[in-house]
Structure to design on (262 residues):
C-alpha cells in the first residue's frame, strides 16, 4: 500500500511509522486510520522488522479523531459503534497484538484517541513540553481506544477518573511520575532516543519479547494460577527457539549473544 497520510521507514530491523497530517495535529481521518492499520499489519508480518517506533510529524503526536471528519459530522444519527470497532478498536488491538515491541515517541500533544493509542504502546517516550489530554469529555464523548482499560490499571481508578472526567492536560513529567511514560527527554533528542531504544530491542530475542508481550496482555484478566499456566506454555515455546539455544551457547562460551529473532 502506498501511504499518503503517514511516512513508513525501515532502517535495519527498526520500522518508524510517522503520522503525517500536521495541519490538524495528525488527527485521524478514515484514510490515516486505514493506513495506520495497514502499517501495523505490515510490521507484524515482516520478520525483518524487530521493533517499531510510532511518532507524529510537526508539533503534534496525534489529536485523536479529526473533528472535521467525524461520523457525527457525516451523519444525522451520530457516531456508529462500528466506526469505533473498525477504526480505533482494530488499531489498538493491532498494536497490543503486534509481536514486536512498539515505542511511542510522543513529540507533541496527544489528545483523545491519540493519547490512548500512545498508552497502548509498549514504551512511551515523551518530549518534555508534551501533554496528554483525555479530551473526549470536552465534546460530550467517552474515552475510547482502550483509555478506560489502560488508565485505571496504570494510574488507579481515582486518577483515571480525574483525567477522563475533567479532560485537563497531563504534563509529560507528571505522566512519567504516574507510570504512564517510560522516559521524558528533550524534544531535540526524542526521535534519536526512541530509535536507539528500538535498535537495542531489535537485537534482543524477538520471539521471547513477543511471548512476554502476550503474557503481559493476558495478566490483566488472568488470575494467578491461569497466569502461571500461561507462563509455563510460553516458556516451552521460548525454550524451543533458536534464540534460547544461542543465549545458552553464548553464556557458556562467555561471549555476547547474537540473537536472530527466530
Ligand atoms: O467518530 C468519532 O468521532 C468517534 C471517535 C472519537 C475519538 C476521539 O479521539 S474524540 C477526541 C477528539 N479530539 C479532540 O477533541 C482534541 C481536539 N483538539 C484540541 O483540544 C486541541 O487542538 C489540542 C489540545 C489537541 C491542542 O491545542 P493547541 O492549542 O496546541 O492547538 P490548536 O490551535 O487547538 O490546534 C492546531 C490546529 O489543529 C487547529 O487548526 P487551525 O486553526 O490551525 O486551522 C485545530 O483546529 C486543529 N486540530 C486540533 N485537533 C484537531 C484539529 N482538527 C481536527 N480535529 C482535531 N481533533
Amino acid at each position: 500500500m502506498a501511504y499518503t497520510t503517514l511516512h513508513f521507514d525501515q532502517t535495519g530491523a527498526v520500522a518508524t511509522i510517522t503520522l503525517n497530517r500536521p495541519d490538524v495535529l495528525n488527527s485521524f481521518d478514515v484514510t490515516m486510520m486505514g493506513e495506520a492499520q495497514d502499517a501495523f499489519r505490515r510490521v507484524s508480518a515482516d520478520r525483518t522488522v524487530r521493533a517499531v517506533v510510532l511518532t507524529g510529524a510537526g508539533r503534534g503526536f496525534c489529536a485523536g479523531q479529526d473533528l472535521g471528519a467525524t461520523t457525527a459530522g457525516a451523519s444525522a444519527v451520530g457516531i456508529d459503534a462500528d466506526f469505533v470497532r473498525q477504526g480505533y478498536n482494530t488499531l489498538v488491538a493491532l498494536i497490543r497484538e503486534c509481536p514486536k515491541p512498539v515505542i511511542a515517541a510522543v513529540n507533541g500533544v496527544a489528545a483523545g484517541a491519540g493519547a490512548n493509542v500512545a498508552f497502548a504502546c509498549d514504551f512511551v517516550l515523551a518530549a518534555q513540553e508534551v501533554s496528554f489530554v483525555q479530551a473526549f469529555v470536552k465534546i460530550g464523548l467517552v474515552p475510547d481506544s482502550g483509555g478506560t482499560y489502560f488508565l485505571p490499571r496504570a494510574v488507579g481508578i481515582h486518577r483515571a477518573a480525574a483525567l477522563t472526567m475533567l479532560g485537563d492536560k497531563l504534563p509529560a513529567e507528571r505522566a512519567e511520575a504516574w507510570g504512564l511514560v517510560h522516559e521524558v527527554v528533550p524534544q531535540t533528542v526524542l526521535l534519536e532516543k526512541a530509535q536507539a531504544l528500538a535498535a537495542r530491542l531489535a537485537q534482543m530475542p524477538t520471539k521471547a519479547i513477543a511471548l512476554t508481550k502476550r503474557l503481559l496482555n493476558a495478566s490483566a484478566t488472568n488470575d494467578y494460577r491461569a497466569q502461571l499456566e500461561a507462563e509455563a506454555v510460553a516458556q516451552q515455546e521460548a525454550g524451543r527457539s533458536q534464540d534460547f539455544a544461542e543465549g545458552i551457547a553464548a553464556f557458556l562460551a562467555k561471549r555476547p549473544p547474537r540473537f536472530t529473532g527466530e
Observations:
- The domain at 206-253 is CATH 1.10.12 (Lyase 2-enoyl-coa Hydratase; Chain  A, domain 2).
- The chain has eleven helices and ten strands.
